[in-house]
Design a protein that fits this description.
Two copies of one chain form a homodimer. By secondary structure, the first copy, chain A, is an alpha/beta fold. Chain A contains eight helices and nine strands. Chain A is globular. At the A-B interface, helix 1, helix 5, strand 9 and helix 8 of A face helix 1, helix 5, strand 9 and helix 8 of B. The structure holds a DNA duplex.
Chain lengths: ~220, ~220
DNA sequence: TAGATTGTTAATCGATTAACAATC
DNA sequence: TAGATTGTTAATCGATTAACAATC
């Protein structure tokens, strides 16, 4: 009897994996072949055991004494995060943030393939932004139904967010990368990853204050 | 003897506070005056006790039966996160992401005041992006020394990130909001908040996979 | 008053860290 | 071989959740 394991990966682990990934890419560039958890931990200011545990999730096998083969580990992380298979994505909202998303060529490295963008502004419709065509928001459903689009990036103002999300879901989208600062009400079969800049900013600004508080003692 | 408490706030709490904040703004718009932890929790799909604990960090006092006064709670969160006091900030790297940051007018709502942007591209220097002047990267130090700049937003390619960080720090910057996908090597008196998009994307793409794995059982 | 909600202490859960045998 | 490193189990730490008296 074969063992089936689908332990869900802790979010902190998922957030650290890209950090390992980027470090590994740079080590590889430098012509290095192997790396140990000790070295990764030192570079990223983490605990070696934690690094090993995280890496273990990707199901790669290391070798005592030498550590992990860098190329293999890169591949392993890519596969684990599905960054090695292309997914069709759409962007809704071509404001400054949306435009940046389309311009961020690197997304193809993460398997994200923008096939269309949507907006309600008449003057934008039909134009191209960084090589991606902008369609009328009202045509969202049929376009994402046609190409099998799984990921929707939401970069509209709060007022328009829920409607945009609803339309995406009706078109068959399974996961929403939400940059609008609000909670989307969706069926629990739909995945929402909130990526509001304000979350990260809150961590920064509060920690600055706490740093000052500590110093003033 | 006065009690001095400087318990550092857990990061998960800091990440949730902006979510409360945005919800409260919308409730206030609707003319609602008070809200209970139960309601907040329901809206954001959290545990009521957790909401109360988080809110407690901001040192507001609620009232049994009625909950919290929305205006007071908004003010309390803003103060706690230092979003009510302006901080001078600079942006380094005016690529698509950097441009989006400057265009994101909302930052002023979070107390972030961009006084300058920097790049090495000759053709950009002297121009304005969304009302913010672009300076030569080499002049970074003197400009940030002049205006008391505390926060630096780093949106340059990996290769340029460490040098840019070093220069910021020499100019007196205390905190770096890092969008470059690499670990910055800085003195431990300097605060670095990593905000790589790939971190959030990793959570999304892996969770999609785990959702499929679960469904296929 | 009765009942809902806060503030807070205690219990639980999960992630991080420590310890160490197995291994190359 | 000796020694560094992995893989894994156990201990610790911290965040989440439960329980409940105080309170409006």
């Amino acid at each position: 009897m074969k063992e089936i394991k689908i332990r869900t990966t802790p979010e902190p682990t998922l957030r650290r994996l890209p950090r390992y990934y980027h470090l590994l890419l740079r080590l590889k560039e430098r012509g290095i072949n192997d790396v140990s958890s000790t070295v990764i931990a030192k570079e990223l200011d983490l605990d070696p055991t934690q690094v090993r545990k995280d890496i273990e999730y990707t199901e790669i096998i290391g070798r005592p004494k030498t550590g992990y083969n860098i190329s293999d580990l890169i591949k392993s992380i890519r596969t684990f995060l599905s960054w090695d298979t292309n997914s069709n994505a759409v962007l809704v909202g071509t404001g400054s943030l949306g435009t940046a998303m389309l311009g961020y060529k690197n997304f193809s490295k993460y398997g994200l393939n923008f096939i269309a963008a949507f907006d309600i502004k008449k003057e934008l419709i039909g134009k191209e932004i960084h090589g991606v065509k902008v369609y009328n928001f009202n045509d969202l459903k049929e376009i994402i139904e046609k190409d099998k689009v799984t990921i929707g990036v939401l970069a509209v103002p709060v007022e328009a967010a829920q409607e945009a999300a609803d339309k995406m879901i009706k078109g068959g989208i399974k996961a929403i990368w939400n940059y609008a600062p609000c909670q989307l009400k969706v069926d629990n079969s739909i995945l929402v990853e909130n990526a509001q800049l304000s979350q990260s900013l809150a961590v920064l600004t509060r920690k600055i204050t706490e740093l000052y508080l500590k110093e003033s003692l």
